[in-house]
Amino acid sequence: METRILSNEKIASGIYKLVFEWKGGIPSPGQFVMVDCKGKTFLKRPISVCSADDKSMTIVYQVKGEGTKNLFEMKKGDTIEVTGPHGHGFELYEDKNVLIVGGGIGIPPLLYLAKKIKAKNLYIALGFKREIFLVEEFKNLGKVIVTTEDGSFGKKGMVTQGIEDIIDKIDIIYGCGPKPMLKALKEISLKNNIPCQISVEERMACGIGACLVCACKVKKDGGFEYKRVCKDGPVFWAEEVEF
């Protein structure tokens, strides 16, 4: 779908929030879109949905390579090609004590989840290296705990250390972030017997399950199998995923 950019603003060092017109289907929290960054790049880039309605969609991306470099140079009024929504999102459980845990660029899609989930009590743990973003938006939705690796904001340490005091209050956990964080979150959920859904990240090419590039190792019948992150995920139950 060819769509027009409404805004493209920097919200932290190397982190940008892009809003564009959207007349496609409204995504579920945890789904993603494939964005044509134009320029010299051939493949679209998978970017999770930060928020969406029947008129516009917001994504937050990090400038890391040639594709996203082209993307951050685009201005209001420019057009881009976006397909989706793709993938399997989070399963939402109502009237539960919910813990959302995000790390780094895995944080933006959890804002959409926090807006949509109907929790009894919502706890949100956000982990950053140093510079924070989207924290104020999360504060409007639940009780927020912020950690930074250098202690420049909130608690010093890793985000999974910031949830130790509240874990006994939680009925279900949702997480998105780097693999070491997700692995630690899986261990915490198993130790405390709390169901946990995680959104994993793998390199993608097609975004529709055809190319098999984004395989993820998951448990099955005492052994394991590979599932496609773009089609079967990106959200899985944490206990399934082999790190």
Automatic annotation (TrEMBL):
<dbReference type="InterPro" id="IPR037117">
    <property type="entry name" value="Dihydroorotate_DH_ele_sf"/>
</dbReference>
<keyword id="KW-0411">Iron-sulfur</keyword>
<comment type="subunit">
    <text>Heterotetramer of 2 PyrK and 2 PyrD type B subunits.</text>
</comment>
<dbReference type="Pfam" id="PF10418">
    <property type="entry name" value="DHODB_Fe-S_bind"/>
</dbReference>
<comment type="pathway">
    <text>Pyrimidine metabolism; UMP biosynthesis via de novo pathway; orotate from (S)-dihydroorotate (NAD(+) route): step 1/1.</text>
</comment>
<dbReference type="InterPro" id="IPR012165">
    <property type="entry name" value="Cyt_c3_hydrogenase_gsu"/>
</dbReference>
<dbReference type="InterPro" id="IPR019480">
    <property type="entry name" value="Dihydroorotate_DH_Fe-S-bd"/>
</dbReference>
<dbReference type="GO" id="GO:0051537">
    <property type="term" value="F:2 iron, 2 sulfur cluster binding"/>
</dbReference>
<feature type="binding site">
    <location>
        <position position="206"/>
    </location>
    <ligand>
        <name>[2Fe-2S] cluster</name>
    </ligand>
</feature>
<dbReference type="GO" id="GO:0016491">
    <property type="term" value="F:oxidoreductase activity"/>
</dbReference>
<feature type="binding site">
    <location>
        <position position="230"/>
    </location>
    <ligand>
        <name>[2Fe-2S] cluster</name>
    </ligand>
</feature>
<keyword id="KW-0001">2Fe-2S</keyword>
<comment type="function">
    <text>Responsible for channeling the electrons from the oxidation of dihydroorotate from the FMN redox center in the PyrD type B subunit to the ultimate electron acceptor NAD(+).</text>
</comment>
<comment type="similarity">
    <text>Belongs to the PyrK family.</text>
</comment>
<keyword id="KW-0249">Electron transport</keyword>
<keyword id="KW-0285">Flavoprotein</keyword>
<keyword id="KW-0479">Metal-binding</keyword>
<dbReference type="InterPro" id="IPR017927">
    <property type="entry name" value="FAD-bd_FR_type"/>
</dbReference>
<dbReference type="GO" id="GO:0050660">
    <property type="term" value="F:flavin adenine dinucleotide binding"/>
</dbReference>
<dbReference type="InterPro" id="IPR050353">
    <property type="entry name" value="PyrK_electron_transfer"/>
</dbReference>
<feature type="binding site">
    <location>
        <begin position="60"/>
        <end position="62"/>
    </location>
    <ligand>
        <name>FAD</name>
    </ligand>
</feature>
<dbReference type="GO" id="GO:0044205">
    <property type="term" value="P:'de novo' UMP biosynthetic process"/>
</dbReference>
<feature type="domain" description="FAD-binding FR-type">
    <location>
        <begin position="1"/>
        <end position="92"/>
    </location>
</feature>
<protein>
    <recommendedName>
        <fullName>Dihydroorotate dehydrogenase B (NAD(+)), electron transfer subunit</fullName>
    </recommendedName>
</protein>
<keyword id="KW-0813">Transport</keyword>
<feature type="binding site">
    <location>
        <begin position="45"/>
        <end position="48"/>
    </location>
    <ligand>
        <name>FAD</name>
    </ligand>
</feature>
<dbReference type="GO" id="GO:0009055">
    <property type="term" value="F:electron transfer activity"/>
</dbReference>
<dbReference type="GO" id="GO:0046872">
    <property type="term" value="F:metal ion binding"/>
</dbReference>
<dbReference type="InterPro" id="IPR017938">
    <property type="entry name" value="Riboflavin_synthase-like_b-brl"/>
</dbReference>
<dbReference type="InterPro" id="IPR023455">
    <property type="entry name" value="Dihydroorotate_DHASE_ETsu"/>
</dbReference>
<dbReference type="InterPro" id="IPR039261">
    <property type="entry name" value="FNR_nucleotide-bd"/>
</dbReference>
<feature type="binding site">
    <location>
        <position position="211"/>
    </location>
    <ligand>
        <name>[2Fe-2S] cluster</name>
    </ligand>
</feature>
<keyword id="KW-0408">Iron</keyword>
<keyword id="KW-0274">FAD</keyword>
<feature type="binding site">
    <location>
        <position position="214"/>
    </location>
    <ligand>
        <name>[2Fe-2S] cluster</name>
    </ligand>
</feature>
<keyword id="KW-0665">Pyrimidine biosynthesis</keyword>
<feature type="binding site">
    <location>
        <begin position="67"/>
        <end position="68"/>
    </location>
    <ligand>
        <name>FAD</name>
    </ligand>
</feature>
